[in-house]
Amino acid sequence: MFRNVMPRYEILSADAMATLDGGWRRLVSEVGVEFMTDRALELFRAAGQRVEDNTVFLDPDFVLEQVAKAPREFDVTARNAANTVHIGGDTMAFGAVYGPPFVREGDVRRDATMEDFRNFAKLAQTFPVLDSAGGVVCEPNDTPLDSRHLDMTYALQTLTDKIYMGNVVSGENARDTIAMGAILFGGRDEIEQNPVSISLINCNSPLRWDDRMLDALFEYAAAAQPVVLTPFIMMGAMSPVTVPAALVQQIAEALSGIALAQLIRPGCPVIFGSFMTNIDMQSGSPTFGTPESATGLLCTGQIARHFGLPFRTGGGLTSSQVPDAQAGYEALMTLLPTFLAGANWVMHAAGWLEGGLVACYEKFIVDVELLQMLREQFTPLEIDEASLAFDAHVEVGHGGHFLGAAHTMDHFRTCFYRTMLSSSDNYERWMRNGAVDTAARATRIYQQKLAEYEAPPLDDAIREELEDYVNRRRTELGD
Questions:
Q1: Angle in degrees, 0-180, between the axes of helices 148-159 and 460-476, rounded to the nearest 10
Q2: Domain annotation covers residue 458
Q3: CA 50 to CA 57: how far, in whole Å?
Q4: How far is the C-alpha of 49 from the C-alpha of 35, rounded, in Å?
Q5: Would you say residue 387 lies in a domain?
Q6: Nearest in space to 180 (alpha carbons), one of 467, 474, 479
C-alpha cells in the first residue's frame, strides 16, 4: 500500500462541477436507471422511489442520503497483517490484471490455464509493489466453468497472503467466496467486522444493472464486504462521445449502485468505480491509454472526493497486442494520471495487454517496473541541510568530479532508483551480452521470480478445511 501525499491534480472548476451535478440529477430522475432484479426494485419502492417496470426514477437527494451512509475510508484485512490495506484518504492499493481469457508468454498467445492463474498469483505475491493478485487474474479455461471460482479463490487464499477479490459471476459464486473467507479468517461474524475481500460489480452501461451482478452485490453487501460499483463506459459505444456526457452518466450509474448497496446494508463499504475509455471511431474497437481516458480519470478523482467516497480507476491499460513501445507508453498514459488523481483502488495495475483480452507475463514485469518508478516519483522530496551536501563541494572543489567523493561513497547504494528491467549498457556491451530487448529481459525476470517463489505459511487445519469445502462444493455443482 502506497501513501500518496502529493497534491491532487484537479482540472474541474466549480462551475464545471455544478454543471455535472445538474446533469446526473436529471439522468437519475428523468431517464432513470434499470435494475434487473425484483429484490432491488422492492427495496427502492419501499424507500419511496418511483418504479416503472425495471426502471427506477431516483430522487437525487435520496441518492445522496444513501451515499452519505457509506464510510469514507475502511480497511481490508489480509491473512498477513502486514499486507492489510487501507482504502480511502491518501492511500493507493494495486491489484493485477482482471478477467483476460488469453495469456501471452513470449511469442505465444493461447488460452489461459489454471497454471497461469497460479503463476500470476505467485508473481503478485513476490512483488511488494502489488497489494493484491486481484480476482480473475486470467480465466482458467482448462477448469470446469461451474466450479473454477473455487479453484481461483483457493489459489488466491493460499498462494498469496495479500487481499483478494471475490467472484461476481453469480450470487452462488459470491456465497462461496464469502464462505471460504469465513473459513480463512475465523467465521462470518469476524469477516463482517473486518472485511477480507473486494468485489467488482460492473454496471451494464448505459444505465442498467443486470441480474447476475446484482445477485452478487446482494451477497457481498449483506456480508459487509467492500464492493466496487463501476460503470463500464466506452465513449461512443456505452455513452455519448463527449467526456462530460460520459462523466455525468458515470456519476448516475455509480451513485445509483452505491445507493442500492446502502439499502441492502447501511454502512456497507463501497468504492466509487470508474472504467472509462473511448472507442476508435473508424474501427469501433476499444482504445486505451488515450488522452480522453486520462482526462476522464483525473475528473473521476475530483468527482469521487466531491462525494466523499474512495474511488477506483486507472491501471496499466493498453490496446497493444504485444509488450512493445505502444504497450509501455499507453500504460504510462493511464498509470501517471492514476497517481496524479490519487486513486485508492487500482485494478489492472500489472499484466494487462490487448485491451484486456490477454494477461501477459512480460507486460506484468513492465508494469511492476512502472509502478515502482512512479512510487519513487510520487514520494515527497526531503530537503534538509545534510541533503545539500556542502562538504562534498569543499572536498571536490572547482572543476572536479564527485564519483569518488566521500558523500557519493556513503550514498551510492541508495541515492537513485535502481531499475530491475531497463538497460543502460553502452552499445558494444549490450551487443556482447546478446542484444537482449526489454521483453526478453522481462521474460528472464518473471521466470526467475517464479523459480524463487516460496508460498506464505498457512495453518494446516485451515488449508484442509478450505480443501474440504472446495471438494464438497465441486461435487455439489456436478464438476
A1: 170
A2: no
A3: 5
A4: 13
A5: no
A6: 467
Number of compact structural domains in the chain: 1
In a domain, 157, yes or no: yes
Domain that holds residue 262: 2-9+67-377
Contacts of 305 (CB under 8 A, 6+ apart): 8, 311
Residue length, the chain? Answer: 479
Maximum distance among all alpha carbons in the chain?
Answer: 82
With beta carbons less than 8 A apart as the criterion, state whether 477 and 146 touch. Answer: yes
- Residue 129 and residue 313: Cα distance in Å, rounded? 17
Task: Quick: pLDDT tens for 317-358.
Answer: 999 999 999 999 999 999 999 999 999 999 999 999 999 999
Which residue, chain included where needed, has cell 476522464?
A: 296
The CATH number assigned to the domain holding 121 equals 3.20.20.480
CA–CA separation, 173 vs 213, rounded Å? 11
The reply to whether 185 falls in a domain is yes
| 5 close to 92: Cβ distance less than 8 angstroms | no
Q: What is the pLDDT of residues 356-382, one digit of tens each?
A: 999 999 999 999 999 999 999 999 999
91-94/345-346 β-pairing: parallel
